[in-house]
Design a protein that fits this description.
single chain, alpha/beta, 2 domains, 7-stranded parallel β-sheet, 41% helix
Length: 336
């Protein structure tokens, strides 16, 4: 039997790199990773040998804004499974670069699925949407189900509504085997410092190293989030493409620990070796509109795949802080 081939767009990101780790350990698949030529490869350092030899992991250069490069990646990899993770994924950035966000996330998804439809139409495609499509949810609609109305609260969230609908469209119009997931907050090692919990962990690690005064700059601390570990998330994504789900299906996925952003910050502070850390509001970290009450109902996906998160919130926060401590110890770091 031929070895299966998997394409991960955005392999150099937090989720993509952890997914590559998981597939290497738990399958015999050949892995192709799409990345832009200018993307940092730090998150793939643990895969240096596999990438250099090309025996299990091969990097292909492509850009969601460039149709020709996407076609090249798809034709080179000819995947049986596609994990579409690449995106402009920072909600705060989307307020200052909305058109780029729309092009990458909406048009880029269309370009990719169109290429898959043309060159490898039997592939099973995981389309990564986001819980941000739900945005500002009334209390009476919590926990959030798959059929909860969209109320996007950022250009990023609007772009993910487009991503979400494009995945369903290609299934219904062309029979492409797409499975769309709306993952709620997921974090852990390798999380970008533009996200709240990683920014907090980075600031704490810099404070511990004497690089910053004992003051953490924050945005909105009142928003409610349900946290999952990225290493649980990638198991869910694997199951999404291997569980014989109906094409065009859409699922909420998320963790079990719900708390405010402020409570999450207090957990990180409690893990710090510095006793007296103060909190200071930074107006530049406040979104014009913020999603809140991001608490999911994940029963549909759990029932369909038997997936459940196994990594505790405490472990996730501890591992995230450790990641930044090690990074700051070995590499120059700029605060932002």
């Amino acid at each position: 039997m031929a070895i299966k081939r998997a394409l991960i767009t955005g392999i150099s990101g937090m989720v993509g790199s952890h997914l590559a780790d998981y597939l290497l350990e738990n399958t015999d698949w050949q892995i192709y990773g799409m990345t832009r030529w200018r993307s940092p490869l730090d998150n793939l350092a643990q895969l240096t040998e596999e990438i250099n030899t090309g025996e299990r992991v091969k990097l292909l250069y492509g850009d969601l804004e460039d149709e020709i490069s996407i076609n090249h990646v798809v034709k080179e990899s000819m995947p049986d499974f596609v994990f579409h993770l690449a995106a402009q994924s920072f909600p705060q950035t989307s307020f200052t670069a909305p058109l780029n966000t729309f092009d990458v996330n909406i048009s880029g998804t269309y370009r990719l699925l169109n290429s898959i439809q043309e060159f490898t139409p039997n592939a099973i495609v995981h389309v990564c949407s986001s819980s941000e499509v739900f945005g500002r949810v009334p209390k009476e609609l919590v926990p959030i189900k798959e059929n909860t109305p969209f109320h996007p609260a950022s250009p990023y969230a609007i772009s993910k509504v487009g991503t979400d609908l494009i995945g369903r469209y290609f299934a219904e119009a062309f029979g492409l085997k797409t499975i769309t997931t709306r993952m709620f907050t997921h974090t852990g090692p390798r999380r970008g410092d533009v996200f709240a919990e990683s920014s907090f962990a980075k600031q704490i690690a810099m404070i511990e190293a004497g690089l910053l005064p004992p003051i953490i700059k924050v945005g909105n601390l009142d928003s409610m989030r349900t946290f999952a570990d990225v290493r649980d998330a990638v198991v869910a994504y694997y199951l999404a493409v291997t569980s014989n789900l109906n094409p065009g299906s859409v699922f909420n996925i998320g963790g079990t620990h719900s708390c405010t952003v402020g409570e999450m910050l207090q957990k990180l502070i409690a893990l710090s070796s510095v006793d007296s850390i103060k909190i200071e509001l930074d107006p530049t970290r406040i979104r014009p509109i913020d999603a809140d009450l991001q608490i999911p109902d994940t029963s549909a996906f759990r029932s369909a795949t038997n997936w459940k998160p196994v990594i505790s919130f405490e472990t996730t926060m501890s591992d995230l802080l450790h990641y930044w401590r090690v990074k700051i110890m070995h590499f120059p770091v700029i605060q932002r």
